[in-house]
Amino acid sequence: MKWPWSGRRSRQGEPPATALYAELIAWARLPHWYELGEVPDTIDGRFDMVALVVALMLLRLERADDRSAGAQLSADLTERFIADMDGSMRQLGFGDPAVGKRVGEMVSALGGRLGAYRDALAGNESLDAALTRNLYRGASVDAGALAWTASEVRTLAARFEAVPLAALLDGDLGSAR
Fold it and tell me: Dihedral of CA 47/165/155/55: which sign?
């Protein structure tokens, strides 16, 4: 099956947000999420993984030392997310009347996940509960898979946190790999 929300991997001449978004999509596409974490390998499951990884980066940018630069990159990443969702919806065969509404729902879903993951990573809510509700959409998931996913999410958030803002502004997640 073809991957919607694919992003581009080439960074030559791309704006930083485009290059960074492609890196984030690569993280969301890693097979271990779907195999070990039992994230459903469906269009909805893929969207949920993209939303999770993008939300983790947006949370990282909220804590940037240079709030202005972090906010601008966050806005640019969100615009890239919207453009990607729009293009993917059209590629999947949705017509003009449905695309705007569906993309609006996806942006709203990203915002909801951003809040849920912010609270969970800050310890205000259980990360397991946030993942069950947002990544697994309330479906029953094996406890081992859920624990693995929660651990990987914490690890990925820490990796993103360790990347210097200057690298992110250049569209590079290199030190997160």
Answer: negative
What contacts 19, CB < 8 A, 6 or more positions away?
11, 170, 171, 172
Is residue 117 within 8 A of residue 130, CB to CB? The reply is: yes
Distance (Å, whole) CA 174 – CA 104: 31
165 closest CA partner among 68, 28, 76: 68
Cβ count near 104 (within 10 Å): 12
Tokens representing 158 are 């820490």
Q: For residue range 48-87, what is the model confidence (pLDDT) as tens digits?
A: 999 999 999 999 999 998 999 999 999 999 999 998 988 8
**102-148 residue pLDDT tens:** 888 898 899 999 999 999 999 988 999 999 999 999 999 999 999 99
CB 53 within 8 A of CB 24: yes
User: φ and ψ at 149, to 5 degrees?
Assistant: -65, -45
Q: Is-contact 23 50, C-beta < 8 A? A: no
| Residue 3 CA from chain centroid, whole number | 15
Amino acid present at 34: Y
Name the residue with tokens 């984030």.
Answer: 24
